[in-house]
């Protein structure tokens, strides 16, 4: 089986899941969505997966764009994997709807619980809890890989339906349109060392440096990569992140994230 796994990742969860799944599938290609959007698509794969984080109980905007762009071989097995810190919302259903309009079938949608990274609402959970999640992730990936190998069509993992639907409508429908300009809430304190890492880790090149300090360009994905990877925690979001513990997957490096571009 010739397989490729596309991913979008800010703090490493989705990249780690994509890599683990590729390993279980005997070396499937792992490729960033950000690069794939700029290139001609290889349509020879007979299994395609897309791994992404859940934002506002829906899809990152770049994933919406990619699903409208991706080229899929007729009859290929296409599946989605959502990484999430809580509920999946309607992320898989939205992906299915977008693909359906292009006569592409979503064969399966899997959800993998990982440590959350939305610092405006909460700090990183204790390391002990993270390790338990990482262990569960490995087991879940083995199950997902088996479904993919057998090319099984399964119900997408979004239960409980009513709660997910309500949260999706309340947050994603209204909030997703504000995401590109959400970077107006970022600011930097005096701890900034002008290292420039924030500019490098932004997956969508939404940061430029002015005299060594970041400026946001209002094409944001609200992924929090800049905030999470700042080595001195100088980047803040509004008044809600100061003093909160940051999160990055311990087996993913800043260089891994910069490699998406």
Output the structural class: alpha/beta
Distance between the termini: 27 Å
Q: Provide the CATH topology of the largest domain.
A: Rossmann fold
Q: Runs with pLDDT <50, length 5+? A: none
Helix fraction? Answer: 25-40%
Main sheet attributes: strand count, strand direction, barrel closure: 5 strands, parallel
Order of helices and strands: EHEHEHEHEHHEHEEHEH
Q: Please identify the top-level CATH class of the largest domain.
A: Alpha Beta
Going by CATH, the homologous superfamily of the largest domain would be Flavodoxin domain
Number of helices: 9
Question: Could you explain the architecture of this structure?
Answer:
The protein is an alpha/beta fold. It folds into 2 domains: 3-171, Rossmann fold (3-Layer(aba) Sandwich), CATH 3.40.50; 178-258, Alpha-Beta Plaits, CATH 3.30.70. 34% of the residues lie in helices and 17% in strands. It has helices at 13-24, 33-36, 61-69, 91-100, 127-150, 161-175, 197-201, 225-229, 254-258, and strands spanning 3-7, 29-32, 47-53, 77-84, 108-113, 186-188, 207-210, 213-216, 235-237. The strands form 3 sheets. The chain has a 5-stranded parallel β-sheet, with helices on both faces. A two-stranded antiparallel ribbon has the order 6-9. It has a two-stranded antiparallel sheet with strand order 7-8. Helix 1 (13-24) crosses helix 5. The longest helix has 24 residues, at 127-150. It is globular and about 55 Å long. The chain starts with a strand and ends with a helix. The mean pLDDT is 94.
């Amino acid at each position: 089986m010739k397989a490729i796994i596309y991913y979008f990742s800010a703090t490493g969860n989705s990249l780690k899941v994509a890599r683990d799944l590729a390993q279980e599938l005997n070396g499937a290609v792992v490729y960033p969505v950000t690069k794939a959007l700029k290139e001609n698509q290889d349509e020879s794969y007979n299994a395609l997966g897309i791994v992404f984080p859940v934002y506002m109980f829906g899809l990152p905007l770049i994933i919406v764009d990619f699903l409208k762009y991706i080229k899929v071989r007729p009859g290929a097995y296409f599946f989605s994997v959502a990484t999430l810190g809580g509920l999946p919302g309607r992320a898989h259903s939205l992906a299915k709807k977008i693909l359906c309009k292009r006569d592409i079938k979503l064969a399966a949608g899997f959800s993998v619980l990982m440590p959350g990274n939305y610092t405006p609402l909460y700090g990183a959970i204790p390391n002990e809890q993270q390790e338990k999640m990482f262990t569960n992730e490995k087991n879940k990936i083995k199950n997902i890989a088996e479904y993919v190998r057998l090319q099984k069509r399964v119900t997408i993992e979004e239960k409980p339906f009513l709660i997910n639907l309500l949260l999706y409508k309340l947050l994603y429908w209204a909030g997703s349109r504000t995401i590109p300009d959400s970077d107006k809430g970022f600011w930097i304190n005096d701890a900034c060392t002008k290292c420039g890492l924030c500019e490098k880790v932004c997956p969508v090149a939404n940061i430029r440096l002015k005299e060594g300090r970041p400026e946001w360009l209002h094409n944001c994905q609200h992924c929090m990569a800049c905030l999470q990877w700042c080595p001195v925690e100088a980047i803040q979001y509004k008044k809600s992140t100061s003093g909160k513990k940051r999160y990055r997957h311990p087996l993913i490096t800043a260089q891994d994230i910069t490699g998406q571009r």
